[in-house]
Amino acid sequence: MTYQIHTADSAPEDSKPLLEKSVASFGMIPNLHGVMAESPQALEGYQTLHTLAQQTAFNADELTVVWQTINVEHACHYCVPAHSAIAKKMGVDDSLVAALRNREAMPTARLQALHDTVLLIVRERGVVAKDKLNAFYEAGYSHRNVLDIILILAQKVMSNYTNHVGETELDKAFAAFK
Questions:
Q1: Taking the model in full, what pTM does it have?
Q2: Which residue among 2, 37, 156, 175 is least packed, with the fewest CB closer than 10 Å?
């Protein structure tokens, strides 16, 4: 059974104001949001986590590293190109996005420590020995940053898993970043 990509007309009543919020933020209803609209609570949760992710202590490059490291690790056919487009809009250098997509080394030791820590948290499902976080802390990151990674991971689990089960079609706006 195929998941419906809801529009403002077809969405459940409680999802309609959330889809209006999507249009205000993205200038459209991304297909991911259209799929999530089936559950107003899922869509609202995702939108809330997305807003909170942007309010973390991470700058645009760091936020992109966290988002894309998770997207690539989860092999999300939708979020990798979507966040490539978002990174472009945020002014992130194309070479950083390419390195993330191709699983190559990060351009700085600090971003490499962030990337490695995100992978560690994802792969170890949060059960990370303290000594494995030393390089992260030595690179200037803090306990807050670990918690911010976990927040963003929650957001990405919602979107990546929704895209997997929903087989979300990539929006035309993100197609150039496929």
A1: 0.94
A2: 2
